Amino acid sequence: MVTRRCTADVDDRPVSLTLRASLLLAAIATISRPAEAVLSVNATPEYIHPCRKADAQFNNCIKETFNHLRPYLINGIDELTVPPIEPLIIPKMQMENGHGAVRVRAILSNMTIHGASNYTVLNVRSDMNKYRIDLGLFIPHIEATGNYDVNGNVLLLPVRSRGEFWASFENVTALAKLYGIEVKKEGVKYMKTERLGIGFKLEKSDFKIKDSINMQNVIGEAMNVFLNENAAEIIEEMKPAASQAIGKHFKNFLNNAFLQIPLKVWLKDSD
């Protein structure tokens, strides 16, 4: 088995295509329903791989915790109201970039994404005294379909395109930087995600659109060719906006779980 180390940096400036970037981010992210049930402090569900802060290999334990969770996320976790992520269904994601060569507003909707559940957590760095966790992840293949609506300017050229898309991404690496705080509910301690930074890189991508506005005319064909041939440049420009969009979705997902699982359930030696 070849070990990959995640090097994506959330502070790097973009490497992104409007549609592709938001799609890729949507794939690494997910949505969730409002939390209802709360686990008992004495519970140890089968999907939890608990750790102890005093463990000399604590970071490795946290890595195993997230990897252990993967098969349960595929079908969803009913008691935490976490929906299945294979396929991952995202009704809508919106992003907007008002700076640089690519100034567009993009809306992606009715998305179906395959492959996000095949993630591997490669490395973890943490400081649980400050509730900081950095996760490096790898996803070998992601494929997405759905609808898109893009309006704005790319390289000073006006862009107006709407229709259906298909996209695939190979060898995706991502870095999630989680900043949490401790909260109490009825005297029980939980961790809440206050902020989440997301960075990503991809090795290869393919992208196709079916434009319903400029269908079967020269403009429509030119738009399709332009978006596909300039994907890397557009993704580069749109990466900050796309990273922000996925951070918002993934933050909601984490809190849906963390705020239902007492700290003592997954950190056995927490106070």
Layout of strands and helices, then pairs:
Layout: H1 18-28, H2 58-75, E1 88-97, E2 102-114, E3 120-127, E4 132-154, E5 157-185, E6 188-211, H3 218-229, H4 231-258, H5 263-266
Antiparallel strand pairs: 1-2, 2-4, 3-4, 4-5, 5-6
Helix pairs in contact: 1-4
Q: What would you say this structure looks like, in words?
A:
The chain is an alpha+beta fold. The chain has a single domain (55-268), classed as TULIP domain (Bactericidal permeability-increasing protein, domain 1). It is 27% helix and 39% strand. The chain has helices spanning 18-28, 58-75, 218-229, 231-258, 263-266, and strands at residues 88-97, 102-114, 120-127, 132-154, 157-185, 188-211. Strands 1, 2, 3, 4, 5 and 6 form a 6-stranded antiparallel β-sheet that branches. The chain is elongated and about 65 Å long. The two termini are 38 Å apart. 37% of the residues are buried. Mean pLDDT is 78; it is low at 10-18 and 28-37. One of its GO terms (cellular component) is extracellular space. Belongs to the TO family.
